Each structure stands twice: as C-alpha cells, then as structure tokens.
Amino acid sequence: MILRAILQVGLLLLLPPLLPGVVSRVKARFAGREGPPLLQLYFDLSKLLRKGTVYSRTTTWVFRAGPVVGLAAIATAGLVVAVAGERALVAFTGDFILFAYLLGLARFATALAALDTGSSFEGMGAAREVTFASLAEPALFLVLVVLARATGTLSLSGMLGPGLATAWGHAAPALVLAAFSLFVVALAENARIPVDDPNTHLELTMIHEVMVLDHSGPDLAFILYGASLKLFLFGAIFTRLVLGFRFESLLAAEAAFVLGLLGFAALVGVVESAMARLRLVRIPQLLVGASVLSVFAMVLLLG
Amino acid sequence: ARVSAIAAVLLATAIGLVLLRRRLARAPAPRAETWGCGFAAPTARMQYTASSFAEMLVGRFSWALAPRATLHAPRNPFPTEALFASHVPDTVLDRLLLPATRAAGRLSALLRPILLQPLIHLHVALLVATLVLILAWRFLA
Exposed site from A29, A221, A261, A300, fewest CB < 10 Å? Predict the structure, then answer.
C-alpha cells in the first residue's frame, strides 16, 4: 500500500520529462537526423533551475505566480489520475471534473501571466489558447462521459481500473471512438501539431509557446516541467484506455503502463512528423469533430 | 473531505514551489523591458486592446453575446479620418430585462386610466372580485 503510493508518486514526478525527449527523438529520426538525447529535458531543467531570472518592468506578482500556480495545479491533478490501472491516490465520485478544472486552472494562470507582460505578442497567444480551450474542454468532458457510461462509475479510478476490461468486452466500438477523440484532445491540450507547432516562433502562428516567452530561469523550468507533466497525464489516461486489461502483479502493470506511455509519446512524434499544422480557422472544426466522435460513441452506448 | 485534501495539497505545492524558487535565485533579479517583437516605440494607437484580445472568443460566441461594432472605413486615396469602435452589451440585461420592464411600464400606463378612476365602488368591486377568484382557485383546484 505504501509501496504502491510511493511508486505512483515517483512515476508521476520522475517520468514526465522523458516523454518530450521521446517525441523529439522520433521526430528527428523521421527527418533522418540523430536527434537530441532522450534525457535532454532533464538536463535542460537542471540547467534552468541554476540560472537567474530576468523580470520585465511591466510585470507584477501575477507574472511571478503564473508558473507556480500552473505547476502546482497540474501536479495536484496527477493525484486523481489512476496510474497503471491501480486506484489513484485520491479517488472519489466525480473526481474527473476536478481533474479537468485543475488543468483549466493551470491554463488560466499561464494565460494571466502572459497578459501581465503587456506584450501584444503574448496577449494574442493567450487569446488563441483560451479560444481553442473553450472547444477542447467539452470534447474532453464528452470522452470522460463515454468512459463513465461504459464502465458505470463516476470516478477516474473506476473508469480506468478493473471495470475497463469488462467495458472493452461489450462496448469496444464506443471505446475505440473515445480513444481516438481523446488522442485529438490530448494533441490540442498539449499544444502539439496539428493544433500548434512547438517549434515555431512566428507571431502569426504561435499559440502556446508565445505565452511562456517572457519566463526565464526556474520559472521556465516550472513551465517546461508542467507541460511534460500534462502530456504525461493525458498519456496516462490514453494508455490505460487502450490497454484496458487487468494485470496480475503490480510490477507487470507498471511495466506495461510505462511501455504504453512511451508508445503514446512515439505516436505523438509520428503524428507531428507526418502532418503540418492546421490553419487556425480549421482547429475549431477539428475539435468539434472530436466532440462529434464522442457523441457517436455515447449514442452507441445508449442503445 | 477529499476535495479539501486536494485543495490543501494544491496550496502546499504552490507555497513549496515559491519557497523553492526563492531559495534557488539568490541574487535580485534584474529588470528589463518586455520582449516586444520589434516595436521600438509603441503608442496606444497601435497597441492591441482588450477587445482585440477577446475578439476571437467573442466572435465564436457571437450568437450569444451579440457584439456591436461601428465602422467608418477610410475612403478615397489619402483618407482624412476613420473610426472603429466595438462594444459588447450585456446580453441578458440590455436585450431581455430592460425591454421587458419597459414594455411592462407601457402596459401599466395603458391600464392605469381604466383601473384607477376615482370611484370607490369600482375599487371595492375589484378587490372583492380578486378575493373571490383567489378563494375559488384555492378550493376548486
């Protein structure tokens, strides 16, 4: 029990920076290059933590609070996610709503910090991010509602726990649709292609990158770590949804979970390498399409 | 109780991160200008305003928010002046409640000369009729 808790918290805190490393490696291999080391983000984070910070004269306490609140909210959201099919550290009925809104709190703090700098560059990024989030959030809720209906429980630990295996037995098509929709939502929430290019730095095209442009030193380390943690959380739900079966031993479950998570990161890398970013006016259509897929899945389950 | 536990964890993590950051950065942080994409001397006329940041979101929900915009487009070569102003009125207040109360005021203004003539008998008859109606509704329904 204590061992399980330690394992979960350890996985939650230590594994996330590996995922962007996997994504970059896959993208580099697709482009024919060797790519940065897999542990690059760990090195970057330790380097940033040792650096000094520069604050703009226009910023106030809101700018200093942004990265802190963002990372705290995302890390707290990790407490309700069922890692590797075990019960989450804190589980209760309706905890998926808390999960979605803790992530929303993180995004709110980041957008506020972006607006606080007084730069029109970052304000536009915040405006775009908030607009797309207003469409991604219903899509996420619809996916979670499909999961709740399929497994019959209202808690993330129940949705991703033992009930999932029986749900795959009788509701497989709905869960496949939900998994696809969840993947699109994960790409949108983590600012990946086709929603946002994490490598672009043109004012016209940046969405998430531009909101964190003015942070430096430990603030930037918090933001990068928080972004990798968010990718980890979405990957955890997606991996558990896809690998729905039960495992006997804790070690086998955790090993399968880690492998599935690395597979999710590789899949994100493949999608990033294979497509270009969508035009900004098409992104609402993509998110509405993901919502419609979830609605179809719900209709399948209502019969 | 579990939600309070999560809120406590959130607060504790935030405070812990602030303390960590304070410990990591010992020297006072230098202050500089916000990186501003090449505008060497921006003025208020060329800055983004709050309504321009919100324009994307307001446009998506324009069926609910109903923004109003005034536009005098620049005309002719060498235009002298141009004007653009946009304004998002409070939908429920300005479009539903205020016209409804104005209509109710007009209706009562119409009925006032009929119902409020200075005749005691009419007032008493109205009172008795309302009382009879209420009692009938209470005992027959």
Answer: A29
Q: Measuring CA to CA, which residue among A220, A229, A234, A105 is closest to residue A181?
A: A234
- Please give, rounded to a whole number of angstroms, the shortest distance from the CA of A260 to a CA of chain B: 28
Closest partner residue to B9 among A76, A127, A218, by Cβ?
Answer: A76
ipTM comes to: 0.79
* Other Cβ atoms closer than 10 A to A262: 17
C-alpha distances (whole Å) from A242 to each of A8, A86, A111, A172 are 20, 15, 32, 10
- What is the 8-class DSSP label of residue B116? T
Q: Which of A221, A33, A22, A301 is nearest to B20 (CA)?
A: A221
Facing A75 at nearest CB: one of B3, B11, B13: B13
Cβ contacts of B36 on chain A, cutoff 8 Å: 119-121
Q: Which of these, A182, A79, A84, lies nearest to A136 by C-alpha position?
A: A182
Query: What's the pLDDT tens digit per position in B1-31?
Result: 788 888 888 999 999 988 888 888 777 777 8
In the numeric block, the tokens 């770590």 are attached to: A225
B96 at the A interface (CB within 8 A)?
no
d(CA B20, CA A84): 30
Q: What tens digit of pLDDT does each residue of B109-141 get? A: 998 887 777 788 888 888 999 999 999 999 987
Who among A91, A118, A134 is closest to B34 (CB)? A118
Distance CA(A243)–CA(A175), nearest Å, equals: 11
Q: Inter-chain contact A131–B33, Cβ cutoff 8 Å? A: no
Q: What is the pTM of this model?
A: 0.86
In this structure, the number of other CB atoms found within 10 A of the CB of residue B51 comes to 14
Q: What is the DSSP letter of A162?
A: T
A121 touches chain B (CB under 8 A): yes
